[in-house]
Amino acid sequence: MRILSGSDCPQGRTSRAAALGLALQLFLPFVLGQIVRRLVGDWVARHGSASRYVGRESVVLVVYSAFSAGERDGVWHSVPSTALLQLVLPSMMLVTAMLWLTRFTADLLRFERADVRAIQFCGMKKALVTGLPMAAVLFAGQPVGQIILPLMAFHQVQLTMCAWLANRYRQHVA
């Protein structure tokens, strides 16, 4: 009797392909960025507004592709309103809890007010930006729009609540 290794099993090949896909989409750009930084770091520092624009537009493209996948998969027509509400309410509770936890922890560590606010806003970001590429690799050939629906709902709640909070902080500064 022969014992199957990971390379003999279809699941083993799928797992390796998914790991390779994730590495190519998420880790490789990071590594390449670190390598090229020595060559272009000074230029990027001088042209910071251009790199910020590219960064923001990249996020817009990821979010657009997520919602487009949802539309393509018919998510918006096949999911009842009550199911969307069941996604939004826990997302609101989670975002609220994380905003409170990041603020509480930053206050406890005696950070200055500007740093506390930065910690709050940065302490829970990147859900959709990193989640969509991972889902596209892990669930290739599946209805990705339906799979990432909870992530899309969370992302929208996060944007809305953080925009509200940022506006509130801005009013207190003015």
From TrEMBL:
GO terms for cellular component: plasma membrane. Keywords: Membrane, Transmembrane, Transmembrane helix. InterPro entries: Na+/solute_symporter_sf, Put_Na-Bile_cotransptr. Pfam families: SBF_like. The chain crosses the membrane at residues 83-102, 123-141. The keyword 4Fe-4S does not apply. It comes from the Bacteria. PANTHER family: SODIUM_BILE ACID COTRANSPORTER 7 (PTHR18640:SF5), SOLUTE CARRIER FAMILY 10 MEMBER 7 (PTHR18640). This is Bile acid:sodium symporter. It comes from Rhodococcus wratislaviensis NBRC 100605.
